[in-house]
Structures are given as C-alpha cells and as structure tokens.
Amino acid sequence: MQRGDVKHEVSKDAILEEVAITLTEYSNILDMQSEILEMLASSGNVTDMLARLCTLAESLLPNAVASIMLIDQATGLMSVLSAPTIPQVGHDALKNLKPGNRGGSCGNAVFHNEPQFVQDTFADDRWLDLRQIAYDFNLCSCWSMPVRDENKKAIGTFALSSFEHRSPAPFHKKLLETAASIVSIVLKNQNNEKRIKLFSTAMQNAANGMILTNDKNEIIEVNQAFENIYGYAGKDVLGKNPKIFASKQYNRKFYNQMWKAITTEHKWSGEIVDKCSDGTHINQWLSISALYDEEKKNVHNYLAIFTDLTELKNAQTKIEQMAYKDSLTGLCNKTHLEQLISSNTEQTLILLNINNFSYINTAYGFEIGDKLLITVANMLKEKSDATHICRINADEFALLYHGKINIKNKVLTIQNLFYREIQLDNITLNISFSYGCVYGVHNLLRNSALALKQAKENGKNNLYIFNQDEDNIGHTQRKSFISYNNLLHHALKEDKIVPYFQGIRNNITKEITKYEALARIQNNAKIIFPNEFLEPARLAGLLPEITKVMIDKSFKAMSSNNYTFSINITEEDLNKNYLTNYLEEKALEYSIKSSRVILEVLEGISSHGKKNHIKQLIILKSKGYSIAIDDFGSEYSNFERVLDLEIDFLKIDAKYIKNIDVSPKSYEITRAIVFFAKNAGIPCIAEFVHNESIQKIIEELEIDYSQGYLFSEPSPLLT
Asked: Which end of the chain is least crowded, N or C, by CB within 10 Å?
C-alpha cells in the first residue's frame, strides 16, 4: 500500500485471528490485567493504576506511547486523563478535543463507539483536525479503543500512538481491548469500594474466566466466563478445591512446581488441561496470582485467570493441515512449491503473473479480484497438465512439470486458454499473463522469478526463459555489489562523500549563474562517480543518508557566496519524509535563503509520484524552495501534474542533448519539450552540452540554460 492511501483492514474469521496471538502474548496481557486488578483489589490510587496500565501497555509495544482520554460530561469534550510518558505540552494540545470524524483516532473512537486503527496519521482523513499535532509530535500511527460505561456508551478512550507507521496485530487489538476494559473497571470503581466488591465486579465483567479462592484454596467466587467455559453453576463449586477440575494428566511433581512458584514468586502461568462438568477436557492458559493483605505479609486469596485454548488448539491443528494449501484457491502454496523443487531432479517451472491485477482490484473491488483468482485456478486445474499447480503470491501462479518440456508450446496453450472473456457476476474481464520460465535442478524459484522480472520489463503478455549464462548473477557481480556496499558504509562513516559543483550557464547573459551539487566519493586518491555507487546505495537503503551529507556540505560551501544551487532529491528521500525539517535546519545553520536552493527531482516523481511526495514538494515550494524536473523526457510525463506543481525548471534529459546536432529525432523531441515549457512559462536547462555544435542548436531553440563540460567541469571548488 502506498503512503497516503487509506485502507480499512478486512477482519479475518475469529479462529484465525485468535491463532495469531501466541501463548506468550496472552500471558503478557494476562499479567498486565492481573497486576492492575491486584492494585484495584488493594484499593490502589486511581492515578497510579492508570499510569501503570499505560506503562505496561507501552512495554508491550516498543516505540509507542499510551494515553487515556475521558469525556467531560458537562461539555462533551475530551481531555487527557493519564499519559505518563507524554509531556505536558502534549496534554495541553489535546485538551478539549471534540469527538467527530476529523478528531483523530480517539475522537473517532468515541464518536463512532468503535475501535479506530489509523496506520498513517499524516494522510488519514480521520486526523484532518489533528494533523499538526501528528507532525509536531511525530505520531505516525495511532490505535484507539473506546472505553465504555455499563450501558456500552463510549465515555473515553485507551490509545497507543506509535512513532512509526504500522497496523495492529491481533495481539495489539487484544491488548487495547483488555486495557480499555480495565480502564472502564477502574473508573467504575473510582470511589474505592471494598476490595471484594471491586474484585467481584472486575471478575464478572472480564472476558476471561476467573476463580477466586481463600487462603485455604477454597473457591469463594467465580465469574460468568467461568460458568460458560466449565459448565458449572457458581453455587455448585463454592467452597470446593479447584482440584475438582483436574484432568489427571499431571503428576504430583507438576503441581509441586506450580505451588513452589506461587509461594516464592507470588504467581504462576502456563498451559494446562482441565476437565469440564460434562467430563470433556479443555486446553487453557492459566495464570494464578497470590493476593496479600494490606500489610503485604499474609496471603488471603488466590486469583486464577484463564483463557480457553480449546478452539485455538483445534484451529492450530487445522492450520497445520492447511500449511501447504492456499486458503483462497485450494492450490498448493509457495511453501509446498519450495518443498517440491528441493529434490535433485530436473524440472520445468513456469511462473504466471496476471497483468494489471492491481487495477482490477481497484476498479472492481477485492471480492471480484478474489473471484478472478479462483476462476484462474479452476481453469488451470481443469486444462493444465502440470504435475503441480500452485498459487505463490497474490496474483502469481506456478506450473511445475517433471523433466524438460517445450516451454513455448506450453505457454502458447495457456495463452489460448485465456484468450477469451471471463464472466464474473455482471462484469466481463479479459486477462493476460507475463511468463517467467526455467528448466533445471537448482534455484528454480529464484531463476524463474528473475525471468518473470525480465518478461515484465519487456512488456505485457511476454515470455522469458531463464538463460543460465546470461541471466544468473555471477560471482564477480555479487562481489562487486558487496564491495560497493562496504565502500558506501565506509564513506559515510569516514566522511568521504563530497559535493562537486558544475556550473549552469545563462544563455542570455552568457555567464554561469547557478551550480548543481553532484555527489562523489573520495576513496584514497580515487574519485568514484555516482553511476558506480548510486544503485548499490539504493538497494542498501543509503540514498537518504547520502542526500543529507550533500545538503549539509553544499549549504556549507554556498554559505560564503550568493549563487543559486541545486541538489538532487530521490524518491527514497521523499519516502522518509524528513526533507522539510532537515532543509530548514541546515538553512538556519548556514544562513542559506530557501530562494537560492533548487531541488531536482526525477520526472517520474512529479508525473506519477505518491500522494505524500507531491504534498511534500508543495510544502517545500511554499517555503521558497524551487523545484526542477531532472531528466525530463525520459518517461511519459503527466504534463498536468507538472503544471499543477508550478515547476520552476525543466532539465531536458541528456540523452536528447548529447547528440542533438546529429539526430533529427533528438532535435524534434527537444524542440517539443521547449515549446511546451515556453508556453507554460518554465525555464529549460539543457544537460550534457559538450561541444559548440550542440550549444549552437541550444541557442537557436532559445533554451534558457546550458550545463555541460563545454562550460564547466564538476569540481570541488566553485569555478
């Protein structure tokens, strides 16, 4: 999912969601619940209890903060009740929040009385009124659960706000649900009623089964969940020892170790099998805590909290059985395919990727997309003679054959099979595939994936057969990549990345009036150019680090003059969303006016860039920075987007300029770009001007600026 797109997660069925929560995670939640309920039973201070609840929740979600907000019944507005790790300025910013569709995760949770899971607060419409707070405090995502009163009315929220973009796992949803339930219990018992009454209320409202015993381990209270799970009525077990539920699957040593832990550590938790009233066995996760008197000297009660794992265990068994099947189509999945091709036998593997499947999902919805995948699977099962048919990705299928086959004939058969309309409900679809194929013994999946990538690059509905000699990444290439990857880390660590400046000539004044900052690596006495290290840097995720160095050093170099200068910005920089703050910081540090700085972005970023990318560029322009489109003409531009962004400069792609004096095609393309730019009032810069013949044509076309070796070679010093 691209940044800026807002998608609401589709709920999975209850069993699968439960499976995603591990026993350890259940234990963590139960321990949290147990600790707060113990504080509650001990008549703890409400402020301390809520603060502790926030702290415990934060310990289960690193890089996040917890908060509890409550509605003022007089005004209907929300304010922070507890958020121990959020500074006071954050409390003040959220004071008197009005619940509503634009009031952030918490405002929406109260307004709709439903949980709200916002992955990207910078783009989600639910955060429209609180967007600045998200920016100011770097709250990237926020999940909020309504806190309800006894009438199920939302009276507040429990929220986890993260400093990174992410969506909640089932564990986190359970954590939020449990914490909100605990907040509700604490608030309902804020008048510090007697401990037994408080604990009884907590037990009856808990989703998990609870048993409370006295110091002799005789049952004095159970909750409704216990009755539902065990099948006993509460009155039938009062006064009895919990050993009546024993399944007799454990020896004395097991119980001795349990009670030793309860005695020495005051708690025990683990998986255990017990017996219900009808004699059937249940798997459960049990947590037992010893409750002490007010002086914390003597145990007066034991609290057992348990979760029924029977359905979870059954679901695990089913999932283990389905480990090698795709749940949607019933075909073999990737895991099974990997096993099938691990044998040392010669096999042929054909990968089929549905062309434009994402557009089908977008245009018709996921339900139609799923139906299409099922239809494709059924057609392949009925008409394909493959030994095995697998679905290995969202829109990707695999056909596996024993031995060597005629791949081209086989693909032609598949193309003919799907060369017809597919009717789904009232929708008619035509589909095609890209095909990546390989024959051999080893690395079949990797090599077929490489072939599929090449097929896609060659165009839709293409076939590419992997060639071991031509397509395999050899030892030398791998060694080269590793070498450059190590070099980049060394260059960043040892400050070896430096800017070289190339002048840009004004063709009217015939003077160099601007400079472009170009990245170089100084490796001992050798200067390494970007064409050698930029791709390894991109693959290693280091482009933003290089850009930061270039901004810092270019600003420093330009602080002693008044030249306008440009810096290259990559898609990876915009993905990180750091540019606005970093540029402002460096501009202040080196006293650089934003009007002197041109940010060069590739044509693709402006023409079909992500929503958040365009938003950043607009913000940067509003702060006075100029925007230039680099390598213009290298892609199919969205001219409307270029105009909407009010681009300040177009840099014509060097591949058209370098031979414009001998290539009529390059000349005509350049002339068309210049015509568009002049009509739009956008100055043009011609790159790669390396001789007088080219410069003469540049001037005849009235291109505003020239950049190239004819006028200026890149240098660490301004020339």
From this structure: N
